[in-house]
Write a structure and sequence with these properties.
With 408 residues, the protein is α+β, with helices and mostly antiparallel strands. It folds into two domains: 281 residues, Alpha-Beta Complex (Naphthalene 1,2-dioxygenase Alpha Subunit, Chain A, domain 1); 103 residues, Rieske Iron-sulfur Protein (3-layer Sandwich), CATH 2.102.10.10. The chain is 26% helix and 26% strand. The protein is globular, with a radius of gyration of 22 Å. It binds FE2/S2 (inorganic) cluster.
Amino acid sequence: MEPSLVEKIARRPIEERQRRGYPEKFPELPIVPAARYCDPRFFAAERKAIFGKSWLFVAHADEIAKPGDYLLLDQLHEPVLLVRGADGVARAFYNTCRHRGGPLVRERSGSAGKDLICGYHGWTYALDGKLIGVPQSKDFPPLDRSCLGLAPVRCETWGTFVFVNLDPSAEPLRDALGVVGEDLGPQIGDGEGVGPVLLLERRSIDVAGNWKLTVDANVETYHVNTLHQASAAIVLDQLATAIFLLPRGHSRMLVGFREGIVLPFELPPFPRASELADAGIYSYHLFPNTSIVYGGSRSFVFVISSWPLAPERTRYDVHFIAATPADGPHADHIKAIIEANWGVFLEDLGNLPFMQRSFEAGTLDGFTLGYQERRIYHQHEEIDRRIGTENVAPELRVAPVLADWIER
Ligand code: FES
């Protein structure tokens, strides 16, 4: 990152702490219709236009470390599997046998060994998707096997982060990452001298709330002094929250630590992590559903992803990441950090089923967002842009007001 950008980001929490009133010229944010969180037609439109067309972070490379290792991406609304090839390349395919649609894998994770074998009649595919075996092939007319490989899904990696995109004509991942890729690529993505970026643990929990509720909880800090008063608020100065709305629906945030706080982190740092991670909780939201967060130092990152399973149900995934292995010399310390953070996440999630219930019952038609919650409105604006405003029912639309507040 340019030193001038680092300086600009580092300065803003101090400016925010000193701010005494509503920012001059910042627009009043219009009411957000609550039905955007429960309307089934809106949910279907989000799945198609956003989750069907965006690059989505689905795995850390360590989850498919060896050839044949796979993940069944059952959080997507189409059946997709991710598998490490014999050549070491991560690939994604529909989990759909080309004979009659049987599954190649049925567990959420595992090893397929040397081949992917359909559990129904035994058609066999190489790890790169080529059809290589058809039992009793004498019963079929000559098959053109070159046309009967597993149907591929776009899959690209950014360092150890693996992404898929259900849209075959999607732009390259790096273009979609935009400023997030530029800022974090040299630190924990890909590039010279990034060093080890290792998976410590992945945790998942299903939440009785819309996927945007779990995203919203990650992109604002207005709630910290109330909801997290006995946890995160002890170390975070919520008033020192600096927010940067970025192009493509992405955003950046730095929340300063309280004065005098020294976190007892002992882990080796990522070699090229920014010193911004020492100043507070330094994070990015990657549209639509992923937050990448330095969790209190240059040495610990968590990646949170929210997956829409139904209008009122979300899978919440957290990948905990460091530059040192989970079972190494810092094992006890790592365990303590993960448990402390997981406790904060559970505090975040505890309100959401109640909010969802209110939205569904219509006891709240719409909600008001403050300046410190503007990342939520930014996300809503981008959602409507991706769906196409004309495809959103008039009563569900949000008016675009933030264009002049998007920066780098
Ligand atoms: Fe896969 Fe028949 S459905 S082999």
